[in-house]
Amino acid sequence: MAIFPSEEWLKGLEVKINSDERYAEVAKNWEGDLFFHIESEGNLKEDLTFYLDLWHGKCRKAVYKPDASAYPKPAFKLTSSYNNIVSVLTDKMNPMTAMMTMKLKVQGSMGYMMRNVPTVLDFVRVANEATTDIL
Amino acid sequence: MQPILKINLTTGATEEFIIPKEWEREFLGGASLAARILYPYLTKELDPFSPESPLLFINGPLTGTSGPTTGRFVICGKGPATNLWAESGIGGFWGPELRAAGYDGLWITGKASEPVYLWLHGSRLEVRNAAHLWGQNTYTTQDNVKAEVGEKSARVCVIGPAGEKQVLFASIMCDHGRMAGRTGMGAVMGAKNLKAIAVHGTNEIPVADLNKYKLLRSESNRKLRDDNEARILREVGTAGVANYAEYLGAMPVKYYSRGSFENIDEISGSKMTDAILVGRSACQGCVIACGRVVKLPKDSSKRKGPEHETMVGFGANLLNDNLESIVDLGDLCDRYGMDTISASNTIGLAFHLFEMGIVTTRDTGGIELNWGDVDAIEQLVRMIGSREGIGDLLAQGSKRFGAHFNAEEEAVQVNGLEVAYHDPRGVSGMALSYATSPRGACHNQSDYFFVDFGHTSEKIGITYFERHAQAEKAANVAKHQDWRTFFNSAIICIFANVDPQMQVDLVNAACGYEWTLEDMMKSGERGWNIKRAINNRMGLTRANDNLPKALLEPYKEGGSMGFVPDLPAMLEAYYTARGWDMESGKPTKDKLIELGLDDVAKELWKKG
């Protein structure tokens, strides 16, 4: 549990994902890694990236500020401004609203995403619960 | 806009109708303008199948301009199943072709003494014999008319056997699979002995400031191409939302009696993409291409694949998880020329009443109506299209079918139009969308389920309320209806996730206006209210703003278990937001005058 965004926060998220029974069940068929790009805004002074390899309800790898070239073809690349990400993490914005209004840009298979909306929503729940404070 | 060509099929007389400029400014085009034009003619006494009954094919000022999803037109009149205002939007290329022929509408009245089709090329109109085409399916008719007129670029609107036989939910098809599905406009066309309308033109599409418009459409199409929602529609079609809708308990199952469908993965847009998709199709100028082109293992050639409504209607609604059969059933409806929502809904009612023991094999001609029995479903579709046996009863839609068996309350319809496949128990805003739609239970007058999914438009005040919120979202629904009424007048497809300010800019460049966002919303509100006034005059009251029994019973399973919309409270808040009279359900005199509808106010509120 830590302040978002920070390396400690990402580590806490990894631990939370790997210990959350509900997520393990909902996401048991999910196969896809995520590359997040958070655009600087407000309290976030520089763009930030992090990487999560999510597989069958578990997190196999989490990397804070990774070299993008190390993960050239993630299943999904998600881009959003800092304030919008914070809004989602603090339940001020529905994650589907973020996606449908292009506040969260998604690169990757939209078909796979739509087939797995429950997994996406539960991932956001886990991330919310792993966040105690905001920068 | 360009003139409308009036055609009397009884006399063969034609006349140009010049649209008053003030009507264009107030109603823009499409369905709203059609309501203004047809207002004097849509009376309570009018029989939709009479020669006097008007059928208006009309464009909007953006039709054919290659703006974002602007290849559409709309067909308006009086609905034979609802006896209310009817409009049915349709994509393809026919509307743009009509514009290129120099007209923005065809206003058909009268009745031909024998089957005919119209051939409009340039400013020349021919009324041709269609006796040899009568009985042909929609696809064959399009091919044959095109061959007869000898113009490869011609675009053809047709009815199939269902329209000829006046099935109350008969549709009109153009461009190999694009359908004006809802409200039975195909039956009205059939009643006029009008089999098809072929058009061809070579004129430039009129745009006030073409240079500005080109820049705007380029930018809006580029953004739309990358839009998340557009990419979903392109990648997996409209049925791409199936899994999510089922997860929420927003997808009706077993004729609106179950809130979940365990085999949803078998009939989703994703499954179709993985299993049988071989291509995509688009309307004129559209960068989304939501149309599905599929090929089944048994097929020798490609054909149209089902969209969301057909997928759910002939799938989960009937407990059918056989994707290939859904392709076949949708195709069969298309060939007969009938609406897949109303057809599958009415068939669902027959299965439901069969299970209740109200409909028996004596009624069905020996056919057992067991859920998921594809052969039985197919037999009923064929019997409806040809009006044989029990098909003659089913062809009258669910309300009349239910009434025939003294079970009208079991029919899932509003004012005679069958409810589409977005369940208000999963997405509560649809309760108001269905109950107050001017054409019966319609999901296109306000696809509010998308807002309940999370699709907001903050610039015009359409914000997010929890999907099971009640009366507090009523004003939001009204606003969304106004916005979609603007879409249906411009005409823009509701799938165009384009910034509202950009839409206003496009209208301004196309029409030479200086509209603001407020003007756009006001135009939508005006259109919504004149349609309401037409319906009030035809007998609609507050009592008509209702939902069928099934939608007010909670599900026992699924993502919306236990929830029902509080319709009376929602309606009260909605009437307040609308400025409608609580008792009569009519727009108040003040509201109509505020919208510049003084003549309507005078007539609607005349004493005695």
Question: What would you say this structure looks like, in words?
Answer:
The complex is a heterodimer of chains A (135) and B (608). Chain A is of the alpha/beta class. Chain A has helices at residues 7-19, 21-26, 82-89, 95-100, 110-115, 117-129; strands at 2-4, 31-39, 48-55, 58-64, 76-81, 104-108, 131-134. Chain A has one domain: Nonspecific Lipid-transfer Protein, Chain A (2-Layer Sandwich), CATH 3.30.1050.10. Chain A contains six helices and seven strands. In chain A, the strands form two sheets. In chain A, strands 4-3-2-5-6 form a five-stranded mixed beta sheet. Chain A has a two-stranded parallel ribbon with strand order 1-7. Chain A starts with a strand and ends with a strand. Chain B is of the alpha+beta class. Chain B has a six-stranded mixed beta sheet with strand order 2-1-6-3-4-5. Chain B has a six-stranded mixed beta sheet with strand order 8-7-12-9-10-11. In chain B, strand 4 (73-78) and strand 5 form a beta hairpin. Chain B starts with a strand and ends with a helix.
